[in-house]
Amino acid sequence: MNEQHRFWQRALRMLSLGVPSEKIFAVPENERHSFQQEVWVRMLLKEQQKKQLDMHMRLEHVPFVIIDTETTGFSPQHGDEIFAIAAAKTNNGDVTDFYSRLIRPEKTIPEHISELTGIRTEDVQSAPRLKDEMDRFLSFIREGMLIGYHIGHDLSFINHFLWTNYRTKWTGRFLEMRQVMEMLHRPLLFPTLDEALSYYNVRCEQRHTADGDVQAMVRLWKCMLNDIKQKQLDTLYDLYTALSVMPR
């Protein structure tokens, strides 16, 4: 399928989503690649909104997608950016597919972040911009339920980017791994990923890298699933119910 055919196919889809035709067909030739990406991202998110996981699905059948990002700071609203992103599709705790990319931010990676992650500005010079990679990332995660440790941080950056560029957000279900961990082992608290990993004696070979942290969280999640089953929490509904009665 050539680029022109793809453009018209996606333009028709965009029309079906209610985008004015004058916006679609007034796009200059040299801007169509960027526009095609916008069409594709919007379509992916629209399709994802229609696919709601059955709350009575057994947990071993739920496609959990473990995600992590590395960022230049803590506030996307103040210009901090993603410079590494990773995700693992899992089924019953086993990895079925893996995604990992370095991302070239607009600004340099601060020295203290490089010291923490081992990733420097020169390491990402040939990496794609997030705008060129977001459609691939969304395609990868769209079928599953997202889970991660302090996942709110990751989603805040993803949603800030999506809103800034496309006036849309990720609206799919997600789980905070820390909350599940503390539900399983109350009254113990696990404010950091390191403490959760230590509880199960899970090693992380490349801590503070997106792919390394995701690989460690995959092993952590498999341990957690075993304990979830021990508590006879069989479905998504059971898990959400257990989380809902936790003290705040």
Q: Secondary structure elements and their pairing?
A:
Layout: H1 3-16, H2 21-25, H3 32-50, E1 63-71, E2 82-91, E3 94-102, H4 111-117, H5 130-141, E4 145-148, H6 151-166, E5 174-176, H7 177-184, H8 193-199, H9 210-230, H10 236-244
Parallel strand pairs: 1-4, 4-5
Antiparallel strand pairs: 1-2, 2-3
EC number: 2.7.7.7
GO cellular component, one term: cytosol
Domain Exonuclease: 63-230
Task: Characterise this structure.
This protein has one domain (61-244): Ribonuclease H-like superfamily/Ribonuclease H (Nucleotidyltransferase, domain 5, 2-Layer Sandwich), CATH 3.30.420.10. The chain contains 10 helices and 5 strands; from the N terminus they run αααβββααβαβαααα. It has helices at residues 3-16, 21-25, 32-50, 111-117, 130-141, 151-166, 177-184, 193-199, 210-230, 236-244; strands at 63-71, 82-91, 94-102, 145-148, 174-176. A 5-stranded mixed β-sheet has the order 3-2-1-4-5, sandwiched between helices.
CATH superfamily: Ribonuclease H-like superfamily/Ribonuclease H
- Ranges where pLDDT stays below 50 over 5 or more residues in a row are none
What's the count of strands?
5
Task: Tell me, rounded to a whole number, the average pLDDT.
Answer: 86
Helix fraction bin: 40-55%
EC number: 2.7.7.7
Organism: Anoxybacteroides voinovskiense
Protein name: DNA polymerase-3 subunit epsilon
Keywords: Exonuclease, Hydrolase, Nuclease, Nucleotidyltransferase, Transferase
